[in-house]
Amino acid sequence: MAFDDPLDRPRAAGGRAPDVFRRGGWVPMREYRDSEPVDFVIVGTGAGAGTLACRLAEQGFSVVALDAGAYFRPLEDFASDESEQTKLYWTDDRIVDGDNPLQMGSNNSGKAVGGSTVHFAMVSLRFRPEWFKSRTLLGYGADWPIDWREMWHYYAEVEDALKISGPVTYPWGTKRPRYPYRAHPLNAAARVLAKGCEAMGISWTETPLATLSAPRGLAHPCVYRGFCVTGCSTNAKQSVLVTWLPRALASGAEVRDLAMVGRIDTGSDGLATGVHYHRAGQWRFQRARNVVVAGYAIETPRLLLNSANDQFPDGIANSSGLVGKNLMVQSNQAVWGTMEDEVRSYKGPPSLAITEHWNYDDDKDFFGGYAYMSQGPLPQLWANTQLGAHGLWGEQLMTAMKDYNHVAGLKIVGETMPQERNCVTLADEVDQYGLRIPRITFSLCDNDKKLIDHSLSFMGQALSAAGARNIWAQEDDTCHLNGTARMGDDPRRSVVDADCRSWDIPNLWICDGSVFPTVGGVNPSLTIQAIACRTADRIHQMARRGELERLPAARPRRVLTPSA
Amino acid sequence: MRDPTRHKPADRYPGYDVLSKRNGPSWNDKTRRVVDQRLSIDDEPRFFAADEFALVQAVAALIAPQPAHRPMIPVAGLVDAKLHRGESDGFRAPNMPRERDAWTRGLAAIEAEARRAHGRGFCELTKSEQIDLLEKMQNGELHDAAWGEMPPQAFWKHRLSHDIVMAYYAHPTAWSEIGWGGPASPRGYVRLDFNDRDSWEAAEAGSSDGDNVRRINRGIR
Amino acid sequence: MKRQSLFLLCAGIGAGAVTLALSRRQPAPPANRIPARRDLSNTPQHSSGTVRAARRLNRAAGLLATSVLADSGVEHYRGSFKNRAMFTPLIVSGATLAISAHGTADMRPAAHRVRDVTYALAAVTGLVGTGFHFYNVGRKLGGFSWQNLFYGAPLGAPMAILLSGLIGFSSERLRESQPDEQQGPEIFDLPAGRMLAAVISVGLLGTTAEAALLHFRGAYHNPAMYLPVTLPPIGALLMAQVCVGTRTRHVAARNWMWLLVAMGFAGSGFHAYGISRNMGGFANWSQNILAGPPLPAPPSFSGLALAGLACIDLVREHPDA
């Protein structure tokens, strides 16, 4: 049998979708006709989209989720190889500029069913409660239109859905329920972080991770192989691909892989009517009563801008002019050093230990906060860091690389401020689908730089105290993408409301990291999923009250009728 | 402050070959397929022209110099194969051409700079002249019209050195050299603490126990 | 070096404790072989029942030792035998297993010097091992944190070899005791059956604590993981009743001990299933035997429960015991 290449032609078709838990396996999948208006067509299958697709399908809505990426079965499709696994990244053409042009691709952009969660580092942290009112309480950024107590409820739901493995007690902030699974054993790299924290007199803990420390159904527990950010081949990683999407399929949602959405249509009433998408060599149009855009903070504004029409010449959902604005990344600077001991940081998930001390300590000369974590770069990534950030090449590089097994590093996830000048716009060039490609403009502000300086100085001391030598700082890295369609209370100053519903087009929703008004100093995936769960509940409530356009009130619970 | 690596021998993981694990539980079918395919790539161009390819080989020997005592990693061939497949990083500066165009233009510019400065092609320069030219590129001190809009530093940073180093460390020989465990699925690791080596990981040579270390490393499956 | 001096210290403690244990036997001349044979001819009825109980205790001690041998073998291999003292439980439990087999086959109503010494050594090894494990966890970064309790040296594990030693040692005392019409068999001047019941009761609770900790680490992801933390404590209660109660027939306790014997062996089955659920299953044994749930651990419950059964018989035959 010829090898079935998921990048070559769609797998989710003919009434079945790949069974991610079995080699060569299939699960039944309900299918909808393009001409049949579904309750929700969702653009994307990542942290926001996949979660929402699952929750909406479980509430009985008809759901079709479209993803430009392939539908992988991790057990058979993922190699233990950095180069091969670049197939998980969004590597379509993008222009980057500004004072601090972003690295895209492998750094922050996924292209696969399951979205970036297929290659994320699984760090699953809650926001600090005050961050939801950072303008009011902390004096910077913008307030969220959502109360942290409500979010606490949804965080717990997501943590349970992903069986997050975390410490028995969390050292910082408001009390949270116990994590469903216990923390993983620390690797030596994590112990370096712990040593540093103990020496500096601050708390540390095991990082709450979306990877199993015990079996769960057909998913194997983590084997500490260390290839997490190139895709987990054991299904220990609780990505959207192996958590929300199987649930979504079982509840009657349809997932279409290798389906690139290029445009959202609106009708004369100003409501969205469906999406144009490219699949299997042709453009098609899926009719829908509601459209959800969840393509992450670059593709979401790009789609909204590319959907401009006579009625909405500046792009749809853009009466505020804020679509694509306030792009926020997180600073991802690091300090690296060499230990006398063997560290072999390639073993285990890369970030097994964390300190959130500087997220919860407000005695700083800058706004926002940062967490920092232990690191475990694989050889290509590490060589590229030595080359790009340390400037080593030739014999120097070769010699430095021989210390690979002795390297320990600490890396921040730091808050950046929302700035309107940091934005996603459309370039004149077009991609393989004929769609205008995004131009991503990013510059750090003074506050961002102060935060970075603070973190590098602190981590340098901590790493030194932990016994590392030859310490150097990596000063130019970023991670994560947020905030190009922010939520808010005021239609003039935000793109969507607290329910992720467009102010302009009431049957258009945006449900991913784009809606973040501020980004906080923690990895965003848990918050994106919590917001998706909240949005699903809000849609359910509004639908029951008949408050949704084109959706009759009190829809009956649908029963799965697979067509295969 | 003591340099922790001062006393380490040059061959840090004597006898270790990550490929000895190929048929063991650390490699799955997919990985075998992918790495086999990579190992089948030789130093023959399919994307580059012959003179371009020679230039890439010369530059690769400077950026990722290889010891003479072992088979060479076909770095230029790996770069060529990637360009032939048309893979992209997924982002570029506005004045940077896409991958293939950037390489073609950059190599032409290097050649032009060599001829302008020394009257000879890059491959005919002495090693110190070659290194000097690369350093000038890194520092933005090259201005030949052949660069066009593309900044020489950007070509160095995002294409030339980046692609060569990534190609070098995509090769199992490089993995063995730095004592990395290599592919690991279904078998991962059990011993995670400091100085905790699983029996299927490379042992590191200290100052005196070289033979014992070599014996351990040869036995890894 | 610190490690070596610690090892010497432990060895010293061990040797001292063995000497102590043996010296306590000195005032008991009937323990010598020849008088013991005489006892055999003099009081055949009592002795045969006592010897049977003693042999069953040998068997129980042997099962516990087997569990320890396999478990410490796997776990200390995982720990790369970084400290040479880590071989100790393997040697001692191996020896304990061998002499327990010998004891199980031995019908003579007399203690055996080699068995005695070995059992005492096993008990001391358990104590010293516990000390070692506490020291190891305590010195790790974070001390007695959940992380170190979960993944550091298991604090309760060496207790299994201590229990094996205690049960075996008791078995020897039982053989050499001379029960008569007024008084049942005794261990250290205490009624043998009741004293053993107490040891087993405490042992069950300790082993439960170990299972509870490690199953908490596994987040009780399978409901069956609650069995070894609920059934044994009830067994411990029933054995406590055997210890202090006035009745001689302990039907509930007997049935419960059989349940725990079965549970212990079933536990290994569950653990095998757990290993099969790890990535690569048994084909990836070089990782999964080490990383999966410990195959040999659950039968320690069976060993204790078998000792419990012997003990219940003893109490039935000698209500004063």
Q: Would you kindly provide a written description of the structure presented here, covering whatever features stand out?
A:
The complex is a heterotrimer of chains A (564), B (221) and C (321). Chain A contains 12 helices and 22 strands. Chain A is of the alpha/beta class and 564 residues long. In chain A, strands 8, 13, 14, 15, 16, 17, 20 and 21 form an 8-stranded antiparallel sheet that branches. In chain A, strands 3, 4, 9, 10, 11, 12 and 22 form a 7-stranded mixed sheet that branches. In chain A, β1 (16-18) and β2 (26-28) form a beta hairpin. In chain A, α1 (47-58) runs parallel beside α6 (244-250). Chain A is globular. Chain B is an all-alpha fold. Chain B is built from 8 helices and no strands. In chain B, α2 (50-63) packs across α3, α3 crosses α6 and α4 (99-118) crosses α6 (152-168). Chain B is elongated. Chain C has one domain. Helix content of chain C is 73%, strand content 1%. In chain C, strands 1-2 form a two-stranded antiparallel ribbon. The N and C termini of chain C lie far apart (49 Å). The model of chain C is unreliable at 1-46 (pLDDT under 50). The chains are: A alpha/beta (564), B mainly alpha (221), C mainly alpha (321). Chains A and B meet through β5, α9 and α10 of A and α1, α6 and α7 of B.
Question: What descriptive keywords fit this protein?
Answer:
heterotrimer, A: 564 residues, alpha/beta, FAD/NAD(P)-binding domain, 7-stranded mixed beta sheet, 22 strands, disordered C terminus, B: 221 residues, mainly alpha, 2 domains, elongated
